[in-house]
Write a structure and sequence with these properties.
The structure holds two protein chains of two kinds. By secondary structure, chain A is mostly beta strands. Helices cover 0% and strands 50% of the residues of chain A. Classes of the chains: A mainly beta, B mainly beta.
């Protein structure tokens, strides 16, 4: 059974960089068939797509976050990571990592999700 | 403001059917057939319940069904059960290859 687990600091200071890692178990991240993505959810609010990456490092970002986001993949560790720079209180959210199918092979929906981790931006 | 518009809340009694709408534009829902729906219980991660407008992943109850007409997608839950009480989110890609979510709909089972 595929499992995803987010890890990283739960508290980040304003203007600093948020860094999270998603560790994938029960399956390989080094696959042609899936993307690996990040979605966030401010407390009490809706979902927001951040972006996703492919095993070869190709990335796709939300236009609204593109200038501050980097998603990278480490196939040797079966992990992928999120970096969000210059954070503000508006970046406080539950951050989820998830798996998405590659078009033409699988549905373009996120079918496996991590449990999520709350990251608070505060001094 | 979310890119896709959902009603903030819907309610129904056990055994009844309810429908949640998700309205977009010709650049997203109207132009693509990969609308998805997610169910989220409090404190839990979202769960995929519908993909490609109307397909159910393995293990998802057939009480959940999806459809699309023009720029509006819909999720119907039939035979409402107490366990269906949750938040529901629609999603669609747009013509810039960005993923959009609806603002979410809170379903209350009376």
């Amino acid at each position: 059974q595929l499992q995803l687990q987010e890890s990283g600091p739960r508290l980040v200071k304003p203007s600093e960089t948020l860094s999270l890692t998603c560790t994938v178990s029960g399956g390989s991240i080094n696959t042609l068939n899936y993307y690996w993505g990040w979605i966030r959810q401010p407390p009490g609010k809706g979902l927001e797509w951040i972006g996703h990456t492919y095993y070869n490092g190709n990335t796709y970002y939300s236009p609204s976050l593109k200038s501050r986001v980097t998603i990278s993949v480490d196939t040797s560790e079966n992990q992928f990571s999120l970096r969000l720079t210059s954070v503000t209180a508006a970046d406080t959210a539950i951050y989820y990592c998830a798996r998405r199918g590659v078009e033409g092979v699988h549905p373009r929906s996120f079918d496996y999700w991590g449990q999520g981790t709350l990251v608070t931006v505060s001094s | 403001q979310s890119a896709l518009t959902q009603p903030a809340s819907v309610s129904g009694s056990p055994g009844q059917s309810i429908t949640i709408s998700c309205t977009g534009t010709s650049s997203d829902i109207g132009g693509f057939y990969d609308v998805s729906w997610y169910q989220q219980h409090p404190g839990k991660a979202p769960k995929l319940i519908i993909h490609d407008v109307s397909d159910r992943p393995s293990g998802v109850s057939n009480r959940f069904s999806g459809s699309k007409s023009g720029t509006t997608a819909s999720l119907t839950i039939s035979g409402l059960q107490a366990e269906d009480e949750a938040d529901y989110y629609c999603s669609s890609y747009n013509n810039r290859n960005s993923l959009l979510f609806g603002g979410g709909t809170k379903l209350t089972v009376l």
